[in-house]
Amino acid sequence: MSLTAGELSAIMPLLIPALGACLLPIASLDSDQATVKWIRAAMFFIALFALTGGFFYLTRLWASGAQPSFGALHMDRLAQFGGIFVLVAAALAVLQLWDHLHQEGWVKGETLSLLLFSVTGMILFAATGNLILLFLGLELLSLPLYALTATVRMREKALEGGMKYFLTGAVASAFFLMGSVLLYGATGSLDIGVIGARLAQGAVDPIALVGAALLLLGFLFKMSVVPFHQWTPDVYDAAPHPIAGFMSVATKGVAVLALLRVMGMGLSLSAVAVPMREAMAILAVLSLVLGNLAALAQTNIKRMLAYSSISHAGYLLLGFVAGTSNAYAGILFYLLAYLAMNMGAFGMLSAFGLVGDEVSFEQLKGLGWKRPGLGIAVSLCMFSLAGLPPLAGFYGKYMIFKELILTGHVSMAVVGVLASLVSVYYYLGVPVALFMEKPSEFAEREAAERPAVLAPLAGATVLVCGILVLVLGLMPGTVLNAFARPASQEVLRNLP
Amino acid sequence: MITAWINSHLLSFIVFAPLLWGLALLPLSERQAPLAKLLGLLGSTGILVIAAIQLLHLPADPMGQVYVERFPWFTAVGVPVDYHLAVDGLNLWLVLLTTFLLPVTLLGTWNSIPKRAGAAVALFLMLETGMLGALVAQDLLLFYLFWEAMLLPMYFLIGVWGGDERKYAATKFILFTLSGSLLWLVALLFLAGRAGSFAPGVMAQAVAALPPATQSILFLAFALAFAIKVPLFPLHTWLPDAHTQAPTGGSVILAGVLLKLGSYGFLRFALPMFPDSAARYAELLAVLSVLAIVYGALVAMVQTDIKKLVAYSSVSHMGFIMLGIASMTVLGTQGAMLQMLNHGISTGALFLLVGMLYDRAHTRRIADFGGVALKMPVFTAFFLVVTLSSIGLPLTNGFVGEFLILNGTYTSGFAWGRALACVATLGVLLSAVYMLWMVKRVFWGPANEREDSGTAHLHEDLNAREIAVMLPIVVLIFWMGIHPQTFLGQSERQVGQMLSLSRAPHGPGFALSAEVK
Questions:
Q1: How far apart are CA A378 and CA A496, in angstroms?
Q2: Where in the sequence is the domain holding A119, given as residue range(s)?
Q3: Does the residue B514 lie in any domain?
Q4: What is the pTM of this model?
Q5: What are phi and psi of B259, to 5 degrees?
Q6: Average pLDDT value over all residues in chain B
Q7: Residue among A330, A390, A417 whose CB faces B182 most closely
Q8: Which of A424, A430, A471, A485 to mutate to test the interface with B (most CBs of B within 10 A)?
Q9: Total domains in the fold of chain B
């Protein structure tokens, strides 16, 4: 059996990170990995090398305009978008991990290897319409994440969080599989395009309806949409900060992309699409309300960010409710904005050197004046998350709300803007702590005794995120037309 | 070459130069704070000079827009957004007021910012970009962006350099403003979807095609956002908190320009775009304005803190401006235009003066003073002039504005017009009561002999810098009082044209001057 060049180029984006993931355990075999600096450096170098390699391969593929496929694996524009998205998020996370794991005193090669395996799964997940491959991708991305959540295992919360994630995630995967089986039973195909075409003929088949609902549940669980969100705060709290950021961005992102492929492309014409869309509308509103209200009450920054990520899942779902070509392009733009602002928000925790089980607003007090560049970048990310113009997050919301209003869902848009009004309050908590409050005397004394925290790599990622938030906000049209629109074209081609 | 470029991009230059200048000042360290202040002052003065030289060249009665810059900005998502800036009769003087108040504020509060002055100066300059941009933007989405961009610098100015309750006040400020503007954004997007454009003229045509109930809802969404900013009674509660907690400079800019953008929004967008709804709700607006006038005055009367008194007087004065706009007569609207400038200058000056007093005495309680005139005669003289202008004494600016507004309301033809004008006149009387009573308690009488009193801490009168700040303000107060035509000429025809269209019950919708060509 031999591969053609086209087939090879379709699976290369998966092979590169997978190869890196296999190399890493060899590099970290040395039991001295925690003590010898160059071994640690080599591990991180391999991880970054694999990620940038994949990134350059995909960007060249994007630039060439080729859309190769290998069996049911389609490395089309949407998949390339997803791959680049995941690789960038992972690269930022790896840079942050270098500082964070050193602060925790827990530098292990396995962490990076698991991360790369998860990246491989994510790229696969976003690149196929075959239910079996989707399930494989889902598992390949999930299993390493369960382990990554618990990776710093001397921390009390880590194991608990990892276990919670594993148990709930396994149930969601089982539902996803069940849904695939039911759809196969109803239509006799595993390909979502064929399934959609068969369902489009005739009335709603109850078995297909249940199958589609269970499939949707699997996606919504990964997006942490209410009511499948309960794991989110505990897991983010347990995971190392960069991993939590990576999960919130990349997992949610590929789940959205896969949902776009399944709902927008596959099932959009069939009769099951209507109840699915109604369900998504209700769940979007629930996520907005619950996510934002719960985030208001948090004193722990990571839990606040976790609830905020639930509310962002709600905004993204609103785009599906609108369901127009512009809305889908808007969703992709939103994801780009979310990548920049949320990696910046989680990166801040590593950059300021916050460790331990509880990272509270208390620990941020007055830090903005000590490191103004970082403080400004973090504030930009927060304002963008809150959706204040002229930053990236505003345009993401703008594009989605506009389509909602144009398709007649004005009341949902009103709920959306009111939810983002509430969110302003808790996002402002960060700049308030950074710039407007003085550290307590105890904290000052403690800070004087310890050596100053310098996290150059994590700090640099936060700065990059801050700049990205600004750039995306200043030229939203360019970015939309260059990336989001071509990628969503795949989906649009099959829209009525 | 540079001058040619500046001429063709004058407004972009005036709008964005402060932002870039402010960003350039950010890296300066704490020790270089005096340098930052100096550069900030020079930069903002430069902007003032350029704006004044270029914009005062305008003909006395510009029929259309001048210094237009217009090109499509991003057309990607369905509705195209234009980068469209222009100066016309409605915003000319507000632009000049803004550029004038910036250097005045920076010079006037030179020593009032104890630490991190560089960052504060940078924020003031960024704020200037937001305000000027909102004033000259002719595209509604662009206006919205600048409108929101004003929030953050002011938020930080209040939250970092403010008083003890600063975090509360800053958060209240931003949440109040956003709650209005986010709903307004929904209305805006709805309209943009119907009109396929963010140009006010095109949108007005789309409005005319909508059923009246929808028009009303959209108008109320617009009105809510602007009314919160003004702030109109009963949405005013954020203002006293923001004013008392903000540093002196923040208060000056807040009262001087930020509030005006609310009433400017009514004039520029809400009324011309919704002629029918505006006529329907004009009386409600007028009643709320009169309530604001009387309520603000009564509450100001019982204040024990001078700054809070000025803040409530602001509520009362902004009520006058809104009353003039709601009268929908040329007289009343012209009066409102003038009163916007008056209020910016007089109340801004009052906040500056209160700040100067506070810097010396470290208290603002009225009871802590008494006999200040004996210790600071020059200060007292300035304070008295500004007070009288704020009350609206003839020959000062306040009189002309209030007279035109009351006259316009009386002749407006609305059922309650005359009654409202009478009640509002009561507000003029009340303003004399609370201001003069405060002046009596603070300045006249024997010096307060208590050791911990404010008067005891007053050792020196105004210095040359402070006098230099106050002199141009006093000149303006009298100029506007004696020859108001300088400031009214540019807007007269435009206001008349706007109103002639807006009263028509089912007219073709107000065509903005750009579309008239």
A1: 42
A2: 5-492
A3: no
A4: 0.90
A5: -65, -35
A6: 85
A7: A417
A8: A424
A9: 1
